[in-house]
Structure formats: C-alpha cells, structure tokens
Amino acid sequence: MDNQPLSPLENNSTKLLLLTSNIEKIIRGKTQEVKFVIAAMLARGHILLEDNPGAGKTVMAKTLAQSISGGLTEGAAGTVSFKRIQFTPDLLPMDLIGSHIFDDTKKEFIFKKGPLFTNVLLADEINRASPKVQSALLECMAENQISAGDKTFLLDKLFFTIATQNPIEMEGTYPLPAAQLDRFFMKISFGYVSEEVELDIYNNYVAIGDVRNNVSQVLTYSDIIGLQQEAENVLIHPELVKSVVNIVQGTRKNSDISLGCSTRGGIIFIKCLKAWALVNQRNFVIEDDIRSLAQPVLQHRMIFRNREASKTSLQNIVVSELERLAKLGIGN
Amino acid sequence: MSTILSNRKTIFQLLFKLFFIVVPTLFISYFTLAIFNLSYTNLDIGIVNQAFYFGLGLVFSFILYFFRARFVFTFLILLIVYWVLGRILAQLDGEIDVFQVVVKFKLYATLFIIGWLFGFLLERVKFSPIIIAAFLTLISIVALKEQTDFSISTLFFSLFPVLAYALYLLFISPILADLIDLDFKKSKRVFLRTLVFLLLVTSAFWLSRLFSDTAINTNSKYIGEKGGQFDGGENENKGKEKANAYDERNGLLERGNKLDDGDDGYKLKDTMKMSDKMSQADHMMFCAKLKNYFPDGTPQPLYFVYHYLTKYDPIKESFIRDASMPYFDEFNVDPSSLAMYRSKLDRNIIKNCLASKQRKYVEAQVYVSSNTWKHALLAPASAYFVQAIPVDSGYKKLFRSAYRVKCTVSELNNAYFVYNPSGNAQLSEYQEQRFNALRSVIDYASADTAVLRYYTAIPKGTLYDSIANLAKRITKDALTPIDKVIAIRNYFLQTDKDGKKIFRYTLTPGKPSDPNIPNTSMLYSFLFKTHAGYCTYFAGASLFLLRSAGIPSRFTTGFATIDRADKNKGWYWFYASQAHAWTQVYFPDYGWLDFDMTIGNDDQREAPHPDGTPPLPPQEQWLVIDGKTETGPDLKSKQLEIDAQKIIFFNEDFQLNKSRRFKIDASVCRVFYGEKDTTLSCIKSNDSLVLVSFDDASKKIPQPKTEMSIDEQVNGFPKPIIVDEIHIKMRAEDVKKDEEKKKVNEKSLTNNQNWQQLLWIGVYLLVGILIFIFLIPFLWLLILWLLFKFAKNPLQRADRAYQFGLYNFHMAGVERDTETPLSYAKEKTDPLFASSFANFMLLYLRLKYSSAQLLPGDKELISYFGNSVIPSIRNKIGFLKMCLNYLNIFRAQRFFRKPNANNQNEY
After folding, report:
1. Nearest to B823 among A288, A323, A330 (CB)
2. Minimal CB count within 10 Å: which of A149, B320, B353, B530?
3. Is the Cβ–Cβ distance between B589 and B355 less than 8 Å?
C-alpha cells in the first residue's frame, strides 16, 4: 500500500480524513456538523450556522481556514485568507465590498477591496445587520463576483462563507427573508455538546488552546479546488435523482407547507449529496445521504404553516421516499 | 381520475370488510338461531328463512353505514316503514293464513332489525365484537336454559363457536384496518394475496371434509346432548351412572336396521336370550292413550305386545319368532307405511284369537318417539286394526309418527296380575272375579289339538324332566288351569323360613359357575340354584313350568304398562326400561291372557320417570274424501268441488259405486302440501286432494247406519261439507323434484345434520384461518429463504439476502422503523447480534447505487451474510425464543406496513 500510488478515491478520502480530524482536534464531538461544513465547501456553497453564542462557530470557521494553505495568502502562516465580519445594525454595504478612495500619487480613484475578497469568510451574526447589508453579501455569495462602480471584481475560486445567526427569537435581529435563505446551501445548528464531550473540553482546555494557536495546514488550496472538482464527479444513481425530485415536488404538494422547495433548492440538494458522499469517503451517493442532508439542505428553504408541521412534514416526505428506495432491488 | 380511483378503493374496502367481518357474523348468528330454534320450536319457520332475513338486515345496514349514512335518521325510517306495514297487515281481516302472515311478518321484522343493529355495530362501534358476542352468548344461554339436559359439554359446544368468533373479530379487525390503509397502487398485490388466501381456505375446507367422519360423530353426539328427553340414548346418563350405560348386546332392545328412509331407532329384539346380565336404557320409547277403563272409570292398563316368540332354541336358550305358529294372531303391519288416515284391518286376527266369551273392543293411540323404530306395531294383545294419524305440529320433535289401533281384548285381561293391588279393594275384587271366571275352564279337552300340541311342547332333556317334576310338585294341589297358574306364580313369590323371598329380580344374574355341573344352563341355574334373574328368566321358567303342567302358553315380548299418575287418565308412558317379556296363557273360549310371573325388583324402586305432557290428540274425523278437483277452489267463496270414489266414513274405508261430486266448504280449513303448510290458493285444477272433516259437535254430521248402503248414506251428507284439513297430493313434477332432492341428500348427509355440519365446517374454517394467519410469518420466512437459496445470480442473491436479513432482524425484535437499512444495520442489529449486516449493506448499496460490478470477495460476503443471519439471531436469543418471535403476527404485519414517520421528530 505504501508503494502503490493511491487511487483517486483513496487519495481524496485520505485528504478529507486529514481535514476533518484536524478540525476535530479543536471542535470536539461535532463530527457530523464538521462534515456538513466541509461538504458545503466542497459543493462550492455557503453555510449558515444558527446557534446561540459560544457554540464554536467562529472557531470552526477559523480552524477550517487555518487548515488550508495557499490561496489568497495574507497571514505569515501561509494559510488561505480568513476574514471575519461582525454584522451590526449600523454596518454598511461598503464595509463589506470595499470602497473607491482617491490615490494621491496616481491621481485617480482606486478600489480598496473590502473583507469579502477572501477565501473563507465568517459573517458573524448576519441577522443583526440591516437587510441592505445582508442582500449585498448574499449577492456576492450567489454570483461569486462584486460590482463596485463600473467595475466588476471576481472573487477567488475558493470563496466559502460561514454565516452565523442568532436564533430568530432573540431581540434586535432582522430575520433573513426566505429568498435569501435559499442561497445558503445548508443551514445547520451546532447545538450544545454532550456531557462527556463538554467534560473532555474543559479538561483539555489548555491543550485545545495550544492547538488553536498553531493549527497544522493539512491541505493545500489546490487540494480543495481538486476536491471540489471531484465532488462534481461523484456518481448519483438515477433513482436517487428521482427521489430528490419526488421530495422537492412533495414539499410543494404538501398542505402543511405554504412555500415548497425551489428547483434551485433541488439542484443544491444534488450538489450537496455528491459532496457529502465524498466527505464520507464514497464516490457514489446512497439513500442514507438523502436522509442525512434533507434537513440541513431543505428545511430552511420552506415556509411551514405551523410549528408542528415544520417538525414533521419534511421528514414524512423523506421517510416515505426512503422506504421506496429501500424496497428497490439492484438494477432498478 | 382520482375520484374514480378512490371510489374503487372504497368498494374494495367494502368487499374486504364484507368478506372478513360480515360473513363470519352471519355464520355465527345462524348458529345461534339454530340453538334458539332447538328450544323454541314454536317459531315454526325454516331456520334458513330466518337467517335470510337476518342476513338481509345485516348486509344492508352494513353497506348503508359504510357509506356514512346517519344512524338515527335511517333507523327511524326503518321503524316507521315497519310500523306502517304492521298497521296495514293489522287491517287485513281473514282466517288462519292471515294470522300466520302477521306472525311471520313480526318475526322477520324482529330478525331484520336485529340484523340491522348488528350491521351498524360492526361498521361504526369499536368494540362491536365484544358486544355482539355477549349478546349472542346471552341468547344461547337463554335458549339452552330451556333444555332439560343442561350439561357442561352442551354449554361448551354451544358457546365455543361464539367465543371463537369474538376472538376472531378482535384479532382480524386491526389487521383488516391495516390492509385497507394500503395504497390503491398496491391493491393488485393485496388482491393476489386474497386470491391465494381464498385458495388456501378452500383447501382447508376440503381438508375438513376429510375429517368429516369425526365431525359427524361429534354431531350425533351433539344432537344427543341437545335432544334432552327424546335423546338417542347413546350417551344417556353417561355422566351419572356408568354402569347404567345401555349395552345393546345385553339388553332387550336393539337398533332397528330398516334404513330405507334414513332413520332408525330402538326396537325390541326378535329373539330373547337368557344371558348373564341385562342392560337397560332409559329413554322414552312411546306413549299411548288406552281407552280401557273399569266401569267406574279407573284406567285399566294392558301390556303392549310386540311379538310372540313361540320357538325355543334349547342350546342357546333363546326364544325366537315362528311364522308357522297355529292360529297366527299377530297383526303383521308396518304402521309407518300407511298414508295419513289410511287404515289396515285384519279380521283373521279376531278369528285366530280363539276367544268368544267376555270380549270387548279397545281403542288406543300410540305416539312413537323420535328414537324408536317406527316400523313396529306396538299394541295391546290382538290388535286387528291400525290407522295412521297425524301428530300435532307442536309435538313433531318428540314424536315421529302416531297410529290408532283397535284390539279385541278379553275382559279378564289386564296388567294387574303381578301388581300388588296393595289394599286397592277394587283391584283385589277384580282379580278374584277374574280367577273365578277362569275356574270355569276345567281342562283343555275342548281345545284345538294343534294349539295344544304346539303350545305345550317342551324340549327333551334332563333339565326339562326336572322342570316337569318341579311343576308337578308345585301344582299338585291345583285342580283347574288357573289354579295351576296361580300356584306357579306363588312359587315365584314364596318366602323361606325367615320370611325372605327366595326368588329375586336382578339385572345381573351372572354366569352359572358351578364346576360340578357340566353343560351348565342358565335356566337350570335360575330355577334350582341362584333364583335370581330378570323378566326373560321368569317368563322362560314359568313357560316351561306351565307347559309341563299341560297348560298352553307362549313367550311374549313387548312393554310393561305402568300406571304412574292419575294426572292424565288413560295416558301411559313407555320407557326403554319397560321393555319386557312375559307369558301368555291360553284358556279355551277366553283366548290368550297375559300372566306376568316376573316378581318386583325389591332392590330398585321404580325409576321416577316423569309423566310427560300427552300430545294433543288429533280430532276424530268423521269423513275423509280422496279425490280430484277439476276446477280448483273458488277463492272468493272458499268453496270447491271434488270428484271422489274413495271415502273413509267413521274409520271405515268405502269404495263408492261411481265417482261422486262433493261440494266442499273450505273456509276454515288448513291446507298442506307435502309436509308444508300452504294456503287455499295453492290448489290447482286437477290436483288430487285428501279432505278431512273432523267430528265436531258444531257440524251436522250424519251417523253411520249399518242398514243403508254407503251410496245411500252419502246422499245424506251435508252440502257443502265443511272440511278442516286439505292435503294436496304431491304433483308429479314435485314428486320428481323430491326424488332428485332425495338423491342429492343421499349423496351428502341427511337434512337434519346438514346445518350442523355446515356450522362445524365454519368453526373449523375459523380455526383454520386463525392458525393460517399465525403461520404467515413462518411461511414468509420460508419463501424468502428459498428465494435466497435459489437465486439465479449473485446480484439477485444480494437482493434476496437483503430482504431476508431485514425480515429476520425485524422478527427477532429489532424493528427498523424509519431508519435507512444501513444505519439500522450499523446502529441496531450489528451491535446486538454481532452480525455482518453493515458490511453487507455497504456492499449492497455499492451494487445498488454505484456500479453493479462485483469485486472479488463480494460473492462470498453475500453468501456468508445470508447464511449467518439466522445463526447470529439464534446465538443471541436462543432457538425457542426465536421461533416464538415468528408467531408474533402483529410484528410481522408491521414489517409490511408503511412506517409512521411522525413517531420520530428529530434526527
């Protein structure tokens, strides 16, 4: 095994294992969520973490950025660039995008790039900023480019936003409209860790702190670009695509859901499924992937009639679809 | 499109429910109705009709309420309709037929409404099986209470089907609810399964036919239990006294073997043997009204004769019939062969009685019990006339037929020879008178020598010599034959020095055991050693003593008549234990007189047999006309005309010189066709009719005049003649139909047993369905295993191993619920059973969703997994528990059910 060149799948698996385990040194007991974040990145998407403060959102984003070398290197450490914007109600779009300033020497306006020009962006507490700012960010996320004045600036190939938001119920927030939520590939919640993990965190606080300060760079920028490419090549069986269609259609027909899933949602779902399969060391999608991803990928795209429906209706659709798949034999 | 689909789905559901719920309910209700009818025979309407109306109500209401009709409203309409119909019927005025229609209407209405309520309960009420079963049980118990023979086994046999039904419904309803919830898309599969199920049920039906022998046995036993007092006697008193069980070999009775009409019954044996013990049955054989009274009106019983056994086989020591006896005076007639009101007369018997002095004519009516052989004529001695008479419909269960006999009887004859008059002055006086009268017979010089020779013959042998000696000793002081008879009788009654009787009555005389006497004879043993025996012994011994003394006598079998109560004067009840043998003694000019030498049984008091209710005697008819109607009846005036040549006028058959036309008033009569009640309108032109007019004080009835010819007397008949009964003779086409029916019946079973067999088949079916349902999980396991074993290629095998694994782990108690198979394998089964399910699932999913390319080692893994499923489960929970798990059909049906995602809220 040492002598033989690794097969592409094994190669990728190793890389992803390295990445996840690296992050997990710091983010403990959250394997699934770490994988979600990575999968969202590999699917060339963005992720929204909805959580209470102190659950490790920022650390997550930072560690991810620190684990990858190359890219828009800025720091001395040679990692991909990582920017963090704390969203506040008085934040302006210019604070994100950047602004034209007058260059004394050249006698012209030059564009001073804002924090959006980065590889990994942490948009903290996104729902505290005004809708104007939110939409500016979301546009960039969708188009992967910034228009400022008469010029259009392309963002880097690796542009991954981790937005966080406080739960809607908290005061002083501008809830994101559904149309904007739709642009996030996933919306997940870290939640609190279990008792044992929490104990482990406290016991190893110093050690964790040390690691945090010098996270090892396990992957390169090009590795990530390669993995993103790889994720697109993951095999998805026609029956599974059909299931995605059934689920998406099901959400539109369901009487408990007032706004069903969009076609874009379906495309994103398939992209995520592929990336998720890759994260789980597979080059093909299986029914379990649908089960794991339906909630984080689809839930936030829909508007439910009531709280009860929001808990069950999507799941009912997915479960009945999974039963259909479970009954299929090989070759069907 | 979707509405059509849902409509079809609804109809599918309805059919399902009808088949699985309504049909068993109908069946069980039919059974309860049958029990009810056993006790309340006065319903008098075919059980099939009753069940039909009940079923109509049930099915109709079930369908109505299935389609969500409002109960209060619909039920109200039903009640109103019935009320209105009832009012309309009440407005009708008419005769008996209208009354019957009203009664029938009320009964059917009640049944229909009960069926209606049942249908509602079944469709709408959750715990309807319990309510219905409780109701049916109650009805059964109420009905069974009427039965005299109320034993635990009766209770069990009657209530078991109802309880099984309740169990079945409780069991089937959740499964059914689940089946019906299936998508319509899958209904095809369900339909196929139903077909398979029906096939299995049919095969179960045929299987049950294989066991039908046992079933019939159970049936006859069942009838026996139900039969109560008119029981077949087979299992009579089994519980109470085992020793008393009737053993045909040792009794006086045997089963008649004339099976041409499908029913048999007990009769006396044609030969009587002295055996070591006698068995007595205890059921009622027949009852009779005997119009024989003393001048003051006290009933004067007479023994009922069956046969004279005039031949003797000294080797077997048994008495046999002899058709060549001189002056044959046995009335040889099968009363059941006579058509209604038809009679048979044999005047030779009056001649052959060889009696002229002190004769009288006695009439009797005999009602033959349902379990008595109906082909035998039982009547007091020297019957010469017999006429078939009807049994009132209320007694048809108890008595299968009846006949009237006329006998020529000596005024000196009665059953009181042995009976102790016990202070009854009149009886003592009568006996004295009788003896005095008979003392006028001094010897047999005047008697016919043929009679004398035949009836005093004794076999040769030392035994008979010693009997002759004994007879000489006993009768040495007696001069006249009657004194000799009395002496012999007194010999049997004598006591020893201590005042103890020497002869004793016993049913178990035992075998003569004296080893010193070679060729031991029962007769010898009885007369000279044990002095113990039953009637055959007393009759046989006295016969030879009488004959030794030169007195002509003969051995007679029949029934002892016991006058038990004065409640129903002249009515006598004959039980099997009254089967008897005695001697008849011949006196010139007086004929044959019954002399019963059997002494009373001191050890056993007379069994307290109930004196039953006598059947309503049929009214005496004065006229029976047998003829043809040309025009049919006039329904308005209720009159008809009949051409007849044959009439029975005061019990005498007459043939008219020429056919006469009688005018008939049929306004008050009942009409019968075959066995069935019908109405006047059923009479068609050219029907052959038998008309009966009763001897009724309200009618003007011409009295028979011996001096006039019958044709002249007919002229004096009233016009029109008021008749009470019209029997339509079976029309040719119906006779044909009847014969065909009989043929069919011969092939299957007798009518009587049909419904019971149906019932038992139904019960077997229910049990079979239950067992089958419990076996479904096993069968499914077997099918999956075979599919796995005989898969064509590795891919198919992987598929089947997947199904097999899922099913087995499910049945082992670990249910998948809404989880995906892979996570189920990883998180549930593998940790518990240490199975390789997760590895297999990874492989399987790869084959399924990636490329169906087998990698090296895949084949082995598939086979290994498939084969290791059961061992891994067995190792964990043990073989027995594993097998028990497969009986859990509720779990099995959850396997096929769509999981309910609502149970799991969060991942």
Report:
1. A288
2. A149
3. yes
Q: Among A288, A291, A319, whose Cβ lies nearest the Cβ of B899?
A: A319
- The shortest C-alpha distance from B881 to chain A (Å) reads 28
The dihedral over CA atoms of B785, B791, B796, B799, expressed in degrees to the nearest 10, equals: 10
Q: What amino acid is encoded at B527 in this protein?
A: L
Tokens of residue B321, six digits: 């019939």
Cβ distance of B820 and A284 shorter than 8 Å: no
Distance from CA of B810 to the nearest CA of A (A): 14
Q: Is A321 helix (H, G, I), strand (E, B) or coil?
A: helix
User: What residue of B is the nearest CA neighbor of A292?
Assistant: B907
- The band of B260, judged by pLDDT with boundaries at 50, 70 and 90, is very low
DSSP type of residue A302? -
Quick one: pLDDT at residue B795? 85
Indicate if the pLDDT at residue B401 is higher than 80. Answer: yes
For B763, half-sphere exposure in the C-beta direction (CA atoms, 13 angstrom radius) is 21
Q: Which residues contact B50 (CB under 8 A, 6 or more apart)?
A: B33, B37, B43, B107, B108, B111
Closest residue in chain A to residue B847, using alpha carbons only: A330
Task: Report yes or no: B692 and B640 within 8 Å, Cβ to Cβ.
Answer: no
**Do the strands B343-345 and B284-290 form a parallel or antiparallel pair, or are they unpaired?**
unpaired
Question: Which chain B residues are Cβ-neighbours of A315 within 8 angstroms?
Answer: 818, 901, 904-905
| CATH for the A8-228 domain, from 2.115.10.20, 3.30.70.2740, 3.40.50.1220, 3.40.50.300 | 3.40.50.300
Question: Of A287-296, B617-626, B874-883, where does mean pLDDT reach its minimum?
Answer: B617-626
Low-confidence winner among A225-229, B153-157, B714-718 (lowest mean pLDDT): B153-157
Per-residue pLDDT of A115-167, as tens digits, reads: 888 888 888 888 888 888 888 888 788 888 888 777 888 888 888 888 888 77
Q: Are A59 and A27 in contact (CB under 8 A)?
A: yes
Give the helix/strand (H/E) hosting B180.
helix B152-180
Picking from B850, B851, B895, B905 by the largest number of A CB atoms within 10 A of its own CB, the best residue to mutate is B850
How many other C-beta atoms are found inside a 10 Å radius of the C-beta of residue A222? 14
Q: What is the pLDDT of residue A217?
A: 82
Percent of chain B clearing pLDDT 90 (strictly above): 0
Kindly state whether A322 is in contact with chain B, defined as any CB-CB distance less than 8 angstroms. yes
pLDDT digits over B664-706, tens only? 888 778 787 766 777 777 788 888 888 888 777 677 777 777 7
Average pLDDT over residues A291-305: 89
* CB B402 within 8 Å of CB B365: yes
Q: Hey, is B282 helix, strand or coil?
A: coil
Looking at residue B189, its pLDDT comes to 58
Instruction: Copy the structure tokens of residue A24.
Output: 């997990």
Tokens found for residue B529: 């050693």
Which pLDDT does position B291 carry in this prediction? Answer: 83
Say whether A322 and B820 touch across the interface (CB within 8 A): yes
Subunit contact A331:B902, Cβ cutoff 8 A: no
Record the tokens describing residue B202, joined without a space: 């049919």
Q: Which fold has domain A234-327?
A: Helicase, Ruva Protein; domain 3 (1.10.8)
In chain B, which residues touch A (CB < 8 A)? 795-796, 798-799, 802, 818, 820-823, 844-852, 898-899, 901-902, 904-907
How many Cβ contacts (< 8 angstroms) between chains A and B?
Answer: 70
Domain ranges of chain B: 10-179, 621-735, 791-903
- Which residue among B799, B818, B849 sits closest to A284, beta carbon to beta carbon? B849
Tell me how far the alpha carbon of residue B384 is from its chain's centroid: 32
pLDDT exceeds cutoff 50 at B216: no
Give CA A55 to chain center in angstroms: 16
Residue B885 CA to residue B883 CA, distance in Å, equals 5
Q: Does the CB of A323 have a partner CB in chain B at under 8 Å?
A: yes
